[in-house]
Amino acid sequence: MDVETQEITDQAPRQPGAGRQFAKYGLDVLVLLAMCALLFYGASWQFVTNSSDAAKYECYVVAFWQGNEALKELPSGQCNFILHPSSAILTNQAVAQRLQHADLPEFIVSFVVSQAPEQALHALPHEYPLLVLIPFSLGALAPAGWYQIAFAAWMALLAISIYILLLRFRSRRAAIAFAIYLVAGAWSTGLGRFDLVPSLLTLGALLFAIRKRWNWAFVLLALATLTKFYPLVLLLPFLLAQQMEMSGKWYGWQRWRPLALFVGLCILVMGISLLLSVEGTLGPLSYFGNRPIQVESLLASLLWLISAVKHHPLEFAYTFGSLNVLSTYSTLIGLFGSVLNIAGLLYTFWLQWRGKINLVQSCLLTLLVVMLTGKVFSPQYLIWVAPLVAYVGESDLRWLISWTVLSLLTTFIYPYIYYMTDNLLKVPYIAWFFPTTAVRNFLLLGVVLCLLLYYGRNKPAITLASAGNRRSLMGQKK
């Protein structure tokens, strides 16, 4: 009898508790279901085409694990960008010739020649570092013909993970804002591309950094960089925040261990990549260095305005996997973008150094400046900053309205304007294209300038320990 009474007593509070849990997280479940459903619907048109980004990822996976010869088993035309590239890329033979001309030992030249991409484990992506093959390979776990759907399912799990992290470590308002931004700005790209991978890793690195777990923060930042190069620009904000928080001698191992972990992990992975393919490791560096101005960037909008004023025609070409603009003013505008980039980043780092912004705000501004002043602005770039915008802005209407409008304009540009014609080279001639991209880009410029001015007026909020560390780094006596 006592046992039965005890069982009833133990079980009684569980039902109301379960009800409270459902009431507590029911809204989150509904938001996640709506987010995933909309993202799947937005990406669904890509599941039946062999020219989507996910289809290219499948080519990279097959080429790496089986060699380029196996690409012929995939649908015709799907992997032509590897088998018959339209842009000049660094080849295995070119690397070997350069090494030979540099009079390097013959065994090094022979080693590079032996890394033929026709063999398994020697064909690396031309655009991305080695670790990207891990998320690419996840889609290959599905049965043949289901790669793109399986890849989208994995990306949906990552989007859910970001939502849960924001919910757990920031607020429900931030999590819901992230869902809104992701659907509004990455409706067709969120599940069709892999940018949620570095975005999740970067958010994880920031959450560890906020809790002063610097070793893990720098490890995750290194993994994000080794997946897609853009998180590398966040190394200085991370290092600056970490150094300002640390105490002790400036040359102490404890102070520099997180950076050593970052550098060591990058060297390790890049070393493995070089052993597999020197050409595949160096290829992405030359790939991005030679890219012209892409038509959706702010620099392209400036070229469009110049052409309208001076009646100077623009030329367009599809190279490096994107639609690019060519003009006699391209070099000048590119230089102007570089100056803006350096000035924006230096001012951002100065704001962080002065304690006017925290690490998350510094990382967000750094990414926004790079996106705004770079030669390329692709739709998936919004995925990089969506978690950070949500973390900083939460439910602030100024953030919600401005970033949702900016995101919707990006979605209107791609895929809607892009698919108003069957000829990609005719996209810039569509009446809506350049006016819409210019409005989006100048809106982003306005957001960045407002943030820089707003944070510049903030009073420094530096702890005594941080101030002391800053003085010690400058070589002054405490």
Automatic annotation (TrEMBL):
Give the keywords, sorted: Cell membrane, Membrane, Transferase, Transmembrane, Transmembrane helix
Q: Name one GO cellular component term.
A: plasma membrane
Single GO MF descriptor: hexosyltransferase activity
Q: Which InterPro entries match?
A: GT87
Keyword Transmembrane applies: yes
Q: Where is the protein localized? A: Cell membrane
Q: Which Pfam families match?
A: GT87 (PF09594)
Superkingdom of the organism of origin = Bacteria
Q: How does it sit in the membrane?
A: Multi-pass membrane protein
Residue spans crossing the bilayer: 29-48, 145-167, 174-194, 214-239, 259-278, 332-353, 359-378, 399-417, 429-455
| Family label | Belongs to the glycosyltransferase 87 family.
Protein name as it appears in the record: DUF2029 domain-containing protein
Q: Which organism is it from?
A: Ktedonosporobacter rubrisoli
